[in-house]
């Protein structure tokens, strides 16, 4: 079977609006890619014109983050709101990983770069499905609540800058997920919501590798240009993500993902380490 060029597969996912259709197609394309990679050959990456913004379902309504209704975390409504926000993040992450592949296809990266982002996109698709299943068990669904409108902003700001994209998306935003997920798991544990805990634990375990992929390829690109990774990372995060990073940091998981403290502490402007 001849495989479509990877950048075309990526664009197909990005232009699929329905969330479950998007994750189904994403997982199928990931399986095809890894089946073709099994003999060690590199199928064509090709070129594509990804959309400026990925196609999304008519719902959820996208609103300013200040207008996303807050609910008490100790209530079922609060847990639904948290799961809905996580589902929204996961769907966005599916598109972000395929977008890296489609948008920067001209960069002539080693095969492992494509493997990593296809695997990450596949993980995010699974995460979206897991969290959507949890919402449905609670009588809700993805789309039932308003969601954060600004999620694609980081992708737009870094549409011409692969190193900026890696610095901001996996190494800042996904690393932030490692900081906040343990607290979320504790909240669902307290409520005895076992299957939601299992879903969040799967997400927590797999997100470490996405941050690690970001760090690995960021360092690779710095090495290719013979530039110092740490000041380059600080410069790019200050340029594209001026809000900076906020403690508390999950230093252990960040270290596991190849993010040393001197990368993120200097970006937390208003706080001191001690
Ligand atoms: Fe995820
Ligand atoms: Fe991720």
Polypeptide structure, described:
With 274 residues, the protein is mostly helical. The chain folds into 2 domains: 1-156, no CATH class; 158-274, no CATH class. Helices cover 62% and strands 1% of the residues. It has a two-stranded parallel sheet with strand order 1-2. Helix 6 (162-190) runs antiparallel to helix 7 (194-225) and helix 6 crosses helix 8. The longest helix is centred in the last third of the chain and has 32 residues, at 194-225. It binds fe (ii) ion (2 copies). The site of one fe (ii) ion (FE2) has 7 residues, from helix 3, helix 4 and helix 7. One fe (ii) ion (FE2) binds at residues 90, 93, 123-124, 127, 203, 207.
**How many β-strand runs?**
2
The class by helix and strand makeup works out as mainly alpha
- Beta-strand proportion: under 5%
- Shape descriptor reads globular
- Widest β-sheet, arrangement of strands: 1-2
Rounded Rg? 18 Å
The largest pleated sheet is described as: 2 strands, parallel
Q: Name the average pLDDT.
A: 95
- Count every helix, treating DSSP H or I runs of 4 or more residues as helices: 10
Task: Indicate the low-confidence ranges by residue numbers.
Answer: none
Tally of separate domains: 2
What's the order of the H and E elements?
Answer: HHEHHEHHHHHH
Distance between the termini: 58 Å
Bound molecules: fe (ii) ion
Helical amount: 55-70%
């Amino acid at each position: 079977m001849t495989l479509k060029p990877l950048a075309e597969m990526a664009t197909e996912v990005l232009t699929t609006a329905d969330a479950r259709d998007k994750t189904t197609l994403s997982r199928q394309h990931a399986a095809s890619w890894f089946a073709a990679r099994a003999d060690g050959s590199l199928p064509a990456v090709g070129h594509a014109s990804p959309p400026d913004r990925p196609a999304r379902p008519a719902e959820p309504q996208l609103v300013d983050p200040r207008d996303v209704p807050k609910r008490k975390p100790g209530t079922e409504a609060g847990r639904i709101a948290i799961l809905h926000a996580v589902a929204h993040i996961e769907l966005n992450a599916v598109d972000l990983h395929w977008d890296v592949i489609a948008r920067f296809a001209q960069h002539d990266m080693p095969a492992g770069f494509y493997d990593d982002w296809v695997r990450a996109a596949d993980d995010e698709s699974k995460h979206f499905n897991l969290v959507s299943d949890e919402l449905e068990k609670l009588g809700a669904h993805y789309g039932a609540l308003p969601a954060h409108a600004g999620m694609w902003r980081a992708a737009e700001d870094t549409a011409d800058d692969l190193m900026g994209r890696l610095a901001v998306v996996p190494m800042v935003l996904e690393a932030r997920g490692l900081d906040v997920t343990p607290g979320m798991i504790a909240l669902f544990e307290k409520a005895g919501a076992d299957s939601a805990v299992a879903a969040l634990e799967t997400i927590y375990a797999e997100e470490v590798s996405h941050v690690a992929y970001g760090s690995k390829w960021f360092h690779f690109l710095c090495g290719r240009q013979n530039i110092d990774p740490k000041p380059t990372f600080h410069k790019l995060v200050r340029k594209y993500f001026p809000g900076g990073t906020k403690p508390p940091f999950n230093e252990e998981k960040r270290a596991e993902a190849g993010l040393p403290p001197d990368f993120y502490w200097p970006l937390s402007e208003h706080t001191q380490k001690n």
